[in-house]
Amino acid sequence: MEKNITNIDSLILSFLERSISSEELQALRKWVKESAENETYFRQFEESWLVSAGSAEKSRFHKEQAYQNFVARINSTDKKIKNRTFPLRKVFYYAACVLFIFMAGIGTQYLFERFQDKELLTYSLEAPRKAKVKMSLPDGSLVWLNAASTLCYNNEFGVSNRDLTLQGEGYFEISKNPELPLIVTSGNVKVRVLGTKFNVQNYQDDDEIRVALLEGSIDFSDSRYDKSIVMKPNQLITCNKRTGVLTLKDINAEYANSWIYDDVFFNEEKLGTIAKVLERAFDVTIHFENDDLKNLIFYGDITIEADNIVQIMDIMAATNKFNYRYDMDKKEIRIYH
Hints:
By secondary structure, the protein is α+β, with helices and mostly antiparallel strands. Helix content is 25%, strand content 32%. The protein is built from 8 helices and 20 strands. Strands 3, 4, 5, 6, 7, 8, 9, 10, 11, 12, 13, 14 and 15 form a 13-stranded mixed β-sheet that branches. Strands 17-20-19 form a 3-stranded mixed β-sheet. A two-stranded antiparallel ribbon has the order 1-2. Strand 12 and strand 13 form a beta hairpin. The protein is globular, with a radius of gyration of 23 Å. It starts with 6 loop residues before the first helix and ends with a strand.
């Protein structure tokens, strides 16, 4: 039988929905401070709420269902463990580059800071090496994260802002909201959008930041310059991180987000850049005998499947441009002449 929502549970739900009154907030604060058990209960409730919100395909989810999920979780927990806090990591990780969802940075301290205009609560979505993530954001926008990427936003997302911070690569399908533009910040670069589809790539070890537009219009800017660039569909901007040089060119945008379908297209791409893609996709380390090998140019596309790294390396090595050796135990590939 389903458990009915109690008075204190109703207060917590109101708090999480940002619909709590000042009097109710004071009552909730007092209750949480009364005991460590109350604080743990609040933490578990908040975590269940956030996980339910993060894994939903829609931006809204049923409050009653979220509560019942919390009850089911509590009932399955060892009743003797009263003061234990639980990690916020929920993993949906399949064998061949699928989903991994990580919600982090949640703390009860937020309850006492949120209404005092102090630091906001930050959510972090991560895709580790050899995995990808697809998620619906609170405003209904969709985002795919490529391997070894991180996306961050705060609890005011969709309310007073639509600000995202990206490290790595992400493809976005943004819900339209003329009154609240969405802004993706990645290093020095900012992409401002109202409603569109675009791809941003900026890994820490990459030499360039790449932004490709598939549909709509976006405003591209770099903090090192005063001007911004309005991009049109089927355009790609590359920004050299060291020199700051910007390059705008026309592309076939259908390849810009092909990685979300496990297909990666290379057009005059250096082997050093391709190696980084393979390292993230297969969680391997690739070593080069010398830097000249990194500058070899390749064309074509590859399909990322579970453990098909050998087939991919065989196809590229068949061009006779290089040889390679793969140590499966160490997960290392050595490329040489």
